[in-house]
Amino acid sequence: MRHQRLEGRHIVRIAPGEYHVTTGGGVISTLLGSCVAACLFDSENGVAGMNHFLLSNHRYSRTMPFCFTEAGRYGIHSMELLINSLMRHGARRENLRAKAFGGASILVNRAEVGNFSCVGSVNARFVREFLANEGIPLLSADLEGERGRVIYFDTTDFSVFVRKIRLQRSLVVAKRDRNVWEHGVRAHDVEPDSVDLWLPG
């Protein structure tokens, strides 16, 4: 059941690979498993937006900051699309503040999926590193864990309502995220020098 403050509100829902920016209030929502959503806003100018992304790669570096790895290119592209759109809508980069969500590790049998088993923690680590490198304060976060989340970002007061979902639904979301991850890995194999944001088929 949704929070009562969301009843009757206009809600924009975004999927993996998408983002949305608004200056008119309203609510942005998404369903997260291993993916991460960054909610960015400039409260002085009334601009807010959210993205939903997943880093796809065969291998992840344990020592190098993700922002400098091949996998990190996907996240950087998603974050810059969001930031550039915010600025086109009137936000000032120095005013941006962030909240971040997702990055769950949901899978039951991790041995079957190789590097996808760590993708939730990879995404969580990436968004923290990116925001720190860009000097964007992370005001609050709900990252990692073992359950998926539905989040509602109220762009009027920049609050976020988080609802953890049941295990069975979390497993369905994990299957979706694995398909997105595999699609991203295949796309990278075909065009290793490109940076793509992929949408679910």
Question: How would you concisely characterize the structure shown here?
Answer:
The protein is α+β, with helices and mostly antiparallel strands.
Description:
The chain has 201 residues and is an alpha+beta fold. It has one domain (9-190): 60s Ribosomal Protein L30, Chain: A (2-Layer Sandwich), CATH 3.30.1330. The protein has 3 helices and 9 strands. It has helices spanning 72-88, 119-134, 167-190; strands spanning 11-13, 19-22, 27-32, 36-42, 47-51, 97-102, 138-143, 149-154, 159-164. Strands 2-5-4-6-7 form a 5-stranded mixed sheet, covered by helices on one side. A 4-stranded mixed sheet has the order 1-3-8-9, with no helix packed on it. β4 (36-42) and β5 (47-51) form a beta hairpin. α1 (72-88) crosses α2. The longest helix is centred in the C-terminal third of the chain and has 24 residues, at 167-190. The chain starts with 10 loop residues before the first strand and ends in an 11-residue tail after the last helix.
Q: Into which percentage range does the β-strand content fall?
A: 15-25%
Catalogue the unreliable spans.
192-201
Number of helices: 3
Number of domains: 1
Radius of gyration: 16 Å
- How many strands? 9
Written as H for each helix and E for each strand, in order along the chain, the element string is EEEEEHEHEEEH
Named at the architecture level, the CATH assignment is 2-Layer Sandwich
Give the topology.
Elements: E1 11-13, E2 19-22, E3 27-32, E4 36-42, E5 47-51, H1 72-88, E6 97-102, H2 119-134, E7 138-143, E8 149-154, E9 159-164, H3 167-190
Parallel strand pairs: 1-3, 6-7
Antiparallel strand pairs: 2-5, 3-8, 4-5, 4-6, 8-9
